[in-house]
Amino acid sequence: MVPKHNQGQRRVALGQAMLSPVTVETTELTLPSRVEAIDEAATAVAGIVTRSGISEDDAFGIDMAVREALANAVIHGNKLDETKLVEINVKSSPDSLEISVRDQGQGFDPDTISDPTKEENILKSSGRGIFFIRNFFDEVDWSISPEGGTTVRMIKRRANR
User: Fold this and answer.
1) Rg (CA), the chain
2) Would you say 64 and 136 are in contact if contact means Cβ atoms under 8 Å apart?
3) Does residue 152 have a pLDDT over 70?
4) How far apart are CA 76 and CA 100, in angstroms?
5) Is the distance from CB of 37 to CB of 82 less than 8 angstroms?
6) Rounded to 5 degrees, what angle do the CA atoms 70, 75, 79 make?
7) How far apart are CA 82 and CA 84, in angstroms?
8) Which tops the pLDDT comparison, 14 or 123?
9) Phi first, then psi: what are they for 13, rounded to 5°?
10) Span 2-31, mean pLDDT?
11) Which CATH number is correct for 23-157, 3.40.1080.10, 3.40.50.2300, 3.30.565.10, 1.10.760.10?
């Protein structure tokens, strides 16, 4: 797993005024569909999150949610098929942290997953991943690519600095 890292600057013109440069850092990771690869990838993402200045409390929740998204992609999306890859994109900007996880599976509808907080689901040993993801990020959406694969995009907005 070799991360690709890009640092770019963007200037926005407002009339005659020019805002100072805004740094957006993007890191891309690719991992094979093996359970053993999840921890290494999640640890790499956690390092990026920590360096981005996210609070320790938020970083803990983000780590849990990213691990769930990676597990879902490897196990449920790619069905442990080692010929299929999982792509991770982490974009850190002054306003937010955006993490996308894309598999190469058939796709699914996250709204069909049972609510883990309902009484009949409380004691089940699985089914909480999407719940964690939705609760630890400010914005979450799933998209299915026409050529196959599901992408979950998770955004954590930064508190006013």
Assistant:
1) 17
2) yes
3) yes
4) 16
5) no
6) 130
7) 5
8) 123
9) -90, 130
10) 62
11) 3.30.565.10
